[in-house]
Specification:
Helix content: 25-40%
CATH class: Alpha Beta
Strand content: 15-25%
Bound molecules: SN-glycerol-1-phosphate
Number of domains: 1
Number of strands: 8
Oligomer: single chain
Strand order of the largest sheet: 1-2-3-4-5-6-7-8
Largest sheet: 8 strands, parallel, barrel
Number of helices: 10
CATH superfamily: FMN-linked oxidoreductases
Structural class: alpha/beta
């Protein structure tokens, strides 16, 4: 099974931030929850050291572990996949292709392309750290997002289109309408999923849901979100 096929099977993913503390007990419950993969990433404070540390702790478990690369300096070997965000609605070309070009200039042919998965991101929560860091134009309507999705899939051939509402519950009608536009790309949704009901609603609109903050706020309820994949 190729890389794209593996990722296509995932419907639920937990996202862990190397810059936030998580106890061994919590990590065990997260990794044994039945989620399909762990995504490691964050918008600020991600370093090589805290990423190595978190990876080594997740590696006690057998589920796939992905690094979502936000900083070239914090790329740690040993993950199963490397997701590379291209923030399509950023006003800063560095966030779309610039940093990527510089990373390829640095690492060139040493990059393990078979493990690298580009993601077309659209960031929609204006109050999120990720919107600030990427200087995203969050004032988009559903048609704008649909057009970005189509662009991501057709012009850029990106295997993942990620609607990012980090920290808030997003417009699921917009997500649903966007999914209708996509034929090949996998639609990831993240933002504000905090319990089983919110997970079910989001999974009804998207292909794959990402649960982040809730793990640090109410772990029991966050773990319940995995059950959305069972129906
Ligand atoms: C963040 O999309 C993820 O990158 C998940 O969002 O933290 O709001 O769950 P939350």
């Amino acid at each position: 099974m190729g890389m794209a096929d593996v990722v296509r099977e995932w419907r639920h993913v937990f996202k862990l931030d190397p810059d936030r503390d998580i106890t061994d007990e919590a990590l065990e419950r997260i990794c044994m929850s039945g989620t399909h993969a762990i995504l490691v990433g964050g918008s600020s404070g991600v370093t090589f050291e805290n990423t190595v540390e978190l990876l080594s702790r997740i590696r006690r478990y057998t589920l796939p572990c992905v690094l979502e690369v936000s900083d070239q300096e914090a790329v740690v070997p040993g993950f199963d996949f490397y997701f590379i965000p291209m923030v399509l609605n950023s006003r800063d070309p560095n966030m779309i292709v610039g940093r990527h070009q510089q990373a390829i200039r640095t690492y060139g042919t040493r990059l393990p392309w078979e493990w690298i998965v580009p993601e077309g991101y659209v960031v929609l929560n204006p109050d999120s750290t990720v919107a600030a860091v990427t200087n995203a134009n969050t004032g988009l309507d559903a048609q704008d997002v649909q057009a970005y999705a189509k662009l991501a899939e057709t012009l850029l051939h990106l295997p993942i289109f990620y609607i990012e509402y980090s920290g808030m519950q997003g417009d699921l009608e917009l997500v649903r309408a966007t999914k209708r536009e996509l034929e090949n790309a996998r639609l990831f949704y993240g933002g504000g999923i905090h319990d089983l009901a919110s997970a079910q609603e989001a999974l009804d609109a998207a292909d794959t849901i990402v649960v982040g903050n809730a793990l640090y706020e109410n772990l029991d309820a966050a773990l319940e979100t995995v059950r959305a994949t069972e129906v």
